[in-house]
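Side project, low priority. Logging it here so it doesn't get lost.
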Amino acid sequence: MKIVTINDVAREAGVSISTVSRVINNRPDVGKSTRQKVLSAVEKLGYIKNTSAASLKQHQTDFVAVVLRGRRNIFLTDLAERILDIGKEKRLRFLTEIIDEKADEFETVRRLYRERKLAGVIFLGSKLEGHEKEAEELEIPCVFSSIEAKFLNGKHISSVSIDNFSAGREVTDRLIELGHRKIALLGYFGSVSDSTGLRFYGAKESMEKHGIAFDEQLYEECDFTLPSSYAAMSRLLKRREDFTAVFASSDIIAIGATKALSDRGYTVPGDVSVVGFDGTEQADYCIPSLATMRQPSEQMAHMSVELLLEGMQGKEGRHVLLPPKWIESESIRKL
């Protein structure tokens, strides 16, 4: 569903924009038949009046939406804070929405657009699978931060992320170099439109390269929360106990998994090595401190704002990949 503007209503009704404006503002200087044509077009297109437009002197404001999908994702909340701080230095005014992982971020943006004509939007943790057309039809500058979106069509779309596939492959390469061949995966696989889910496809490629068959019995799906990761690790331990390493698709998943291992008498890294992903502050304060693949959150935040400003200036969108950094810490050991 695209954002419906007053121009669309005017085109549908075959009248001028000023006529539509007079009708939706209940002005009396419009004929009955013309008024009915406009109201029919409003109903057909699903147009909702921009409630703040009457007080604005310009068509668009400089309000920018930041929509974070995933209330308990500590990497994304930290990234959002960095984006807000950097954006304020650029004199951007933000409308921030934090929504549940199952909520529709595109409907959120359409609502915000109707309430306040947005100059652009930054998405964090967006789920693009099945929503490609909605993203392409938004018609305002869009930046997908932490999600690679180069497969989308639209000059108004930019993205900044790491190469999650290559990063997942590198994590697994490093575990194999330490002698681990029974590696459990905790998190989820995703499609090309969900770049976070590509981390485990990179892990599978690494295994195949080293002659290790991927064992589905050593994979457990979970979301990015402590209770979910703790439960997933517990299920895996009931099924298999022969793995020597765990690759978790986020630090928070790794922390939950480590707690589950400890509660069942396993030591990290003595019995099981554990690797996370994201490089959050929490990873440094775990006991033991967590080995992880660190995403460059500060650089990612700066680039998110830069790409948004470029889009607001009418420039064509770009898709940027930044290099992550491997952090070897106390939660892994050589066999």
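Brief comment: The chain has a mean pLDDT of 89.
Revisit when time allows.
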